[in-house]
Amino acid sequence: MRLTLVESVQKKARFLEVVAAELQLENVTIVAERVEQIGQQAAHREQYDWAVARAVAELRVLVEYLLPLCRVGGAMLAQKGPQAGAELAAAQQAISQLGGGDAQLHAVSQPEEEMNWFLVVISKTAVTPPKFPRRVGMPVKRPL
Predict the structure, then answer these.
(1) Where are the alpha helices (DSSP H) in the chain?
(2) DSSP SS3 for 121
(3) Which sequence spans correspond to the domains of the chain?
(4) What is the rounded average pLDDT for all residues in the chain?
(5) Is 49 helix (H, G, I), strand (E, B) or coil?
(6) 3-state SS, residue 94
(7) pLDDT of residue 118
(8) 30 — phi, psi (to 5°)?
(9) Can you tell me whether residue 106 is helix, strand or coil?
(10) For residue range 31-84, what is the model confidence (pLDDT) as tens digits?
(11) Fold of domain 46-141
(12) Is 12 helix (H, G, I), strand (E, B) or coil?
């Protein structure tokens, strides 16, 4: 399996490079750029079977970050908190607009945690229009 890790903070990206080297993870590549930027680069756009994100933004934003990276037939996976169902409902237009298809919500329970977590899996069924992802900051300022 080949993994590409995207981290825009240079210090964190360097740490990931050190860890990958120490663990001799030859199939791990670190990309130290913003996801909005690599989503427009041919080397990354629609090249991946899976794009995965932790709970770093609202689902409408994550969809714009991740679906442009997935090939048609691939999928995105996002970790979300207790509001996952509401976020998924609010993201339906963005999912459709960005080439997404069926969405599944999977509950993940951890005995030591009181909060419920969810994994949102969205299939990629169509090519993402070239204007997405929008420039840095726009997905957060003006979610689809």
Answers:
(1) 10-22, 35-38, 59-66, 84-90, 92-97, 138-141
(2) strand
(3) 1-32, 46-141
(4) 95
(5) strand
(6) helix
(7) 93
(8) -105, 130
(9) strand
(10) 999 999 999 999 999 999 999 998 789 999 999 999 999 999 999 999 999 999
(11) Rossmann fold (3.40.50)
(12) helix
